[in-house]
Amino acid sequence: MNIFTAYISIISIVLYSGCAQYEAPKPDKKKEISILNQKVKELDANDKKLIYRSIQNDINRYSKEADKAYSRGYNNDALIAYKLVNFYEGYHSVPLQKIEKIKKNINYKSRVHYKRALKQYMVNNKKALYELNIVMMNNPNYKYSSELFDKLHENRDIKIYVNSIKSSLQMQMLNSDGKIKSLKSIELTLKELLAYDYKNILAAKAEEVLQKHMDIIAENNLLKYKRESIKIAKQAFLEKEYVKSIEYAQKVIAIDAKCMEASNILKLAKQESKIELDNLIKSGICYYDDRKLDEAMNNFQSALKIDPYSNASLIYSKKIHRQLKTIKSLQ
Predict the structure, then answer these.
(1) Distance of CA 293 to CAs 278, 280, 285, 311, Å?
(2) What number of CA atoms fall less than 13 Å from residue 65's CA on the CB side?
(3) For the CA atoms of the chain, what is the radius of gyration?
(4) Tens of pLDDT along 93-143?
(5) Sign (positive/negative) of CA torsion 37, 42, 44, 50?
């Protein structure tokens, strides 16, 4: 069978089964699984390998979407995405224990929050909508949650309230200067909107705006950190604090491996630290031979700060420590 025909068929079945709960009555799961298994059996090993390679990006995308949904309490979306990851991977990349845990959360939260919604339905529409919103995040097909959710959104007072949040969010996005304070305001308003309308289109746009600004802030902070670290590395080198200079140069290289300035500082600091290390060990040995144990110990301890694995420094330090201990016991 044509590999791409099989590929399209399989994806269509999986995606349909994942989205059906939003748009259509429950499909016949046994029939779909049977069709899916048949399609998979018709593929040979090479076909499966080619398909896997062609959808690797999809696997990564579904995995990120699932993690994000799970962390935000969107258990239904997380479950669908995790199942897709496992399907495409061909094994339980997402452990079955985690899948079962999500299912239990879905069942529990749907049941509990649906009951709370019903209690509030004739008393407080706003609280009822809040509870139903949680149900929808977990299982949009739970009993009459979808119908009640839509009905409440048609309520005049609810419409006014939700529209006021949306208007506030739009203004905040429009007037945002990209600073932390304004982004926090957007984040709080966004959170309020999602508490009553979990799939709001404006909320998705606001999340994009937030992510864009947060990426810019993160990049600027990284550049600032890089500049400050280079400055410290340079100053430490001039003050002959080579260990400190090496430490900060390495911090810069960890975030920017191509930074020539940090690489040059690191190279020079290592060269100078080696010279200093040799001098400290030589001086330490001379002090030791002259029975100046305290001065010798200071030199070897300084050498160990440059190279904690220096054999000569370690050996002499232990010897001096034992001798000083013996001298002290005899006094």
Answers:
(1) 18, 14, 10, 18
(2) 16
(3) 32
(4) 899 999 999 999 999 999 999 999 999 999 999 999 999 999 999 999 999
(5) negative
Instruction: Find, among 273, 325, 272, 268, the residue nearest to 304 by Cα.
Output: 273
End-to-end CA gap in the chain: 93
**Pairwise CA distance, residues 150 & 73, whole Å:** 21
CA distance 168 to 176: 12
Segment holding 189, helix H or strand E: helix 180-194
The distance of Cα 42 from the centroid of its chain, to the nearest Å, equals 38
Longest Cα–Cα distance of the chain, Å, equals 95
Neighbouring CB atoms inside 10 A of 126's CB total 14
What class does CATH assign to 240-330?
mainly alpha
Rounded Cα–Cα distance for residues 98 and 137 (Å): 18
Which residues, 6 or more positions from 287, have their beta carbon under 8 angstroms from its beta carbon?
Answer: 293, 295, 296, 299
Q: What is the DSSP string of 249-279?
A: HHHHHHH-TT-HHHHHHHHHHHHHHHHHHHH
pLDDT of residue 89: 82
DSSP class per residue in 233-251: HHHHHHTT-HHHHHHHHHH
Comparing CA positions, the residue from 106, 53, 60 lying closest to residue 79 is 106
Residue 17 binned pLDDT confidence (cut-offs 50, 70, 90): very low
For 55, list phi and psi in degrees, rounded to 5.
-115, 15
Query: Which value, to the nearest 10 degrees, does the dihedral of the CA atoms of residues 110, 111, 112, 116 take?
Result: 90
pLDDT digits (tens, 9 = 90+) for 264-321: 999 999 999 999 999 999 999 999 999 999 999 999 999 998 888 899 999 999 999 9
The sign of the torsion formed by the CA atoms of 222, 227, 231, 233 equals: positive
Please give the Cα distance from 314 to 81 (Å, whole number): 55
- Is the CB of residue 172 less than 8 Å from the CB of residue 189? yes
